[in-house]
Amino acid sequence: MKRKIVIVLMILVCFLLQSTVFQSLSIASISPNLLIILTSAYGFMKGKKEGMAVGFFCGLLEDIFFGRLLGMHALLYSYIGYANGYFNQIFYGEDIKLPLALISASELVYGLGTYGIMFLMRSRFDFFYYFRRIILPELLYTILVTLFLYRAIYMIDQKLEPKRDLKERIDIV
């Protein structure tokens, strides 16, 4: 129960930071996507189901407050969380390379998915303009923030992990 409450609080804090503080720190009206970082992190740290659940609630919050199509972001974030869950078996928490690569790929998929749903369906075909002006700067800004935020998410998750006794740890190895 404690874990679920902390995850809900983390979703709310990341949403509030993304929609307030980082909006004022935006560069050329581009801000980092903290909810993608959180969704991806829980996907590869905890697996497909938890990544999908965190992604759904992150996307639903974004849909309710900023979305034009209810459910679009929830579906996109859910897929991203689920896809990151496939990397749970090769995840090693102390190494930043895999999380950085997966969060970057998730941000790229999110940008391309948003383009496909919101712009391409409205017959706006200037993909390279959208890529240069929105997708790429948001990707770079998200990568920069990931370097700091991922460590905090990982440490919070480790604090919530139940402590195993020495005999159980030896049996696992």
TrEMBL record:
Cited InterPro entries: Cell_shape_determin_MreD_prd, Cell_shape_determining_MreD
Subcellular location: Cell membrane
Membrane spanning stretches: 52-77, 98-122, 134-154
Listed GO biological process terms: regulation of cell shape
Superkingdom as given in the UniProt entry: Bacteria
GO cellular component: plasma membrane
Membrane topology: Multi-pass membrane protein
Record's keyword terms, sorted: Cell membrane, Cell shape, Membrane, Transmembrane, Transmembrane helix
Signal peptide from the UniProt entry: none
Family: Belongs to the MreD family.
NCBIfam families: shape_MreD
Name of the protein: Rod shape-determining protein MreD
Gene that produces this protein: mreD
